[in-house]
């Protein structure tokens, strides 16, 4: 454990990003917020701070519970932060909305037959004139 850890190093050690370079790029791009505002790469992380971090489709809001500058196992990395209950509820709600949206979209049912293929090719050549 160390007393002062830069935010890019903490995000890397907490396994939010695969490399420090990716963490730095996200911070400089304004994707990471520290206590509600944009942050610079050299910001020193403090216990109890709220950090918003993008993770795939979601944005996690975590409270810093530990400081470490070394990247270790996932279990130890999870001990460095605690996700807020509001963030968990928002992530679950958005995941449910994505699931529902994906269910409503129907993919194609097999390959088009000869008549459908000719209609597609005609549409591509001439547009929608009929």
Automatic annotation (TrEMBL):
It comes from the Bacteria. The keyword rRNA-binding does not apply. The keyword DNA-binding applies. Residues 5-70 form the RNA-binding S4 domain. Residues 119-130 have a biased composition (Basic and acidic residues). Pfam families: S4. SUPFAM superfamilies: Alpha-L RNA-binding motif. Keywords: DNA-binding, RNA-binding. Residues 82-130 are annotated as: Disordered. Belongs to the HSP15 family. This is Heat shock protein 15.
């Amino acid at each position: 454990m160390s007393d002062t850890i830069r935010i890019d190093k903490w995000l890397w050690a907490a396994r939010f990003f695969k490399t420090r370079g990716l963490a730095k790029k996200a911070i400089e791009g304004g994707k990471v917020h520290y206590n509600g505002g944009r942050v610079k790469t050299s910001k020193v992380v403090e216990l109890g701070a709220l950090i918003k971090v993008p993770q795939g489709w979601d944005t996690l809001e975590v409270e810093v519970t530990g400081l470490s500058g070394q990247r270790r196992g996932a279990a130890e990395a999870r001990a460095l932060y605690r996700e807020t209950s509001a963030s968990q509820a928002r992530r679950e709600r958005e995941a449910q909305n994505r699931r529902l949206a994906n269910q409503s979209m129907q993919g194609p049912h097999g390959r088009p037959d000869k008549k459908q293929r000719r209609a597609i090719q005609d549409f591509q050549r001439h547009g929608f004139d009929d």
